[in-house]
Amino acid sequence: MKDKFLQIFRKIYHLKDKIAFFPTIISIAGALFAYLMMFAENKGISKYLVDFLPGLVINNIETARVILSSFIGGLISIMVFSFSMVMILLNQASSNFSPRLLPGLISNRKHQIILGIYLATILYCIFILVFIEPTGSKYQVPGFSVLLSIVFMVCSLGAFIYFIHSISQEIQIEFIMNRIGTKAKKKLEKLLELEENEEFEFSDSSNWKSFKVKETNYFQDVSLNILKKVALDNDCKLHVISKKGSLCFKDEILFKTEKDLDEKTIEKIYKAFDFSNEEFIEDNYLIAFKHLKEIALKAMSPGINDPGTASYAIDYLHELFKLRIQKQENDFIFHENNCIILLDIITFKDLIYKVMASLRNYTKHDVIIVKKLLQFLKDLKNYTSDKEKLQIIDTEIENLLKDAKSSISNNYDYDKLSEI
């Protein structure tokens, strides 16, 4: 029962990143509230309020209809305008920065809630308008419900003003990079806290039982709660071979188990893995390195030619690498000081090479950007005493200087770089 609950929770967790998830929930709440108000009107809530607070109740049928009709038409116009702006933002981010940024922008919770407020108010007004119907020779006017529609409309206008403020920030690349960097930094800091004062020891898994990928797809995340429960229930260690964020081809080894497990348990382990083309930093901090690198590359492309943006992206990469260099080369899960789950990750050597190889190629002609990269690499050496990692950084510095020398013809500029 608990396993099913965890699986349902994971599905809902991923649904929340869809642009229609929160609007659907909030709009359903608006429709249900309209029915609740109809029930209250049938019980005479408006008549009761007329006796005590007559100024709060609208008694005129035509006034009520005009108000509700105006609200419906106005809100539909506001909603169309608002989410035309969202589409413009997505298009600009895709063309100027990187298409990989789109999932993070689409999953913006604030914009989803604003859309939900619009839809809930529209549905509420429609249902209350339909509720105005003749009873005998007279019309029943839901005066208090109409008053609430005015309150909801004011809230919608407030949400619209906030939306304009929010979209004006979201469209700025500095804001986008700050959001990416902040999320990844929090994720890395949390992982470093888990590793603090922990000694990593894990059995050799070369002879363990192997299980392969069923279909070719990108491996984005895995439910550690499910894996931990399986490991503890079966007194068995698990080794996840595939790396988060990588493309897993069919029949590649996905994970290994220390002992033979029944088919039902193995299927439970498979369900813990999340394969998807969508990339979210909350699931994998490495996505931030990829996004920031692509922003810098796009900024330095001949069509954009924006060294300022590239410089900002390198600053955020600098911050993230300062944390990553302190991290161990594997992720692991402990239970009572015993490591029961090992997760292979992209090593520091592979990660910095993938970032620097692309940046070297696109920025080697720009003295200022190359200088910034050299300072960033030099500063990284202050955050580790690991000789292997220090050697990796020295190799990247040498490669960067070689590429810069092939593109910078001015000896004075190159000498300035060599001094660093």
From TrEMBL:
One Pfam family named in its UniProt record: DUF2254
Segments spanning the bilayer are 20-40, 66-90, 111-132, 144-164
Keywords on record: Membrane, Transmembrane, Transmembrane helix
Which segments does the entry list as coiled coil?
none
Q: What is this protein called?
A: DUF2254 domain-containing protein
**Annotated source species:** Polaribacter reichenbachii
